[in-house]
Amino acid sequence: MGTIKTTNIEPIATNGTVTLGSSGDTFTVPSGVTITNNGTQTGFGGTNTPAFEVFITTEQTPSGGTPTKINFDSEVFDTAGAYSTTDKRFTVPSGQAGKYFFYSSTCIGGSANSSLQQGYLYIYKNGSEYKKAHFNTNNDGNGRYYQFALMDILDLSVGDYIEMYGRGDVASGNVEIRTAESRFGGYKIIE
């Protein structure tokens, strides 16, 4: 076939539609060509899904000095049903392998009769520690709480699972993981 050269294509009717090709056709944009969009786009790009965010409904009081799975037991949203509030983990669904961004902001502290010496927030991958954030609180008083944040990008396969763990070290008394201030979420990155 031939080549059509023009500077403008418009529909016959005002506000009409122009259709290029039909089902099964392929249009190739060669390397070095720039596509500029100044209008509204639909059907391009992708979505950052699966995506989820969860929080805690009941305060946890784990033993000091021990990494403990954080009980993120209530969903804000979960686009693929990939987060289990029973197992407290996100599992990569079938067909959704790729890079994922995960984040958590979790409030850990010492109870009124204890002083938090240091705290940790962990990302666990498939049951093992993957990454951690450590905060030294300098033993600066009883009953204080600290907001711990941790985020990372992980390249995951179908069936891999991610959990959040927390740890607080106290001289005496209890560690507490607070409810409203603690969140965990993630989403697949568009590549």
Write the layout of secondary structure elements.
Blueprint: E1 51-55, E2 68-69, E3 74-78, E4 83-84, E5 89-91, E6 98-110, E7 116-125, E8 128-136, E9 145-156, E10 161-170, E11 175-177, E12 183-188
Antiparallel strand pairs: 1-3, 1-12, 2-10, 4-5, 5-10, 6-9, 6-11, 6-12, 7-8, 7-10
Features:
12 strands, 6-stranded antiparallel beta sheet, 191 residues, mainly beta
Verbal overview:
- The chain is mainly beta.
- It is 0% helix and 42% strand.
- It has no helices and 12 strands.
- It has strands at residues 51-55, 68-69, 74-78, 83-84, 89-91, 98-110, 116-125, 128-136, 145-156, 161-170, 175-177, 183-188.
- Strands 1, 3, 6, 9, 11 and 12 form a 6-stranded antiparallel sheet that branches. Strands 2, 4, 5, 7, 8 and 10 form a 6-stranded antiparallel sheet that branches.
- The model has no long low-confidence stretch (mean pLDDT 86).
Give the CA-CA distance, first to last residue. Answer: 35 Å
User: Over the alpha carbons, how many angstroms does the gyration radius reach?
Assistant: 25 Å
Tell me roughly what share of residues is in helical segments. under 10%
Written as H for each helix and E for each strand, in order along the chain, the element string is: EEEEEEEEEEEE
Q: State the helix count.
A: 0
Give the uncertain stretches in residue-range form. none
Sheet having the most strands:
6 strands, antiparallel
Global morphology? elongated
Q: Structural class, please?
A: mainly beta
Number of strands: 12
What is the mean predicted local confidence, pLDDT? 86
Estimate what percentage of residues fall within beta strands. 35-45%
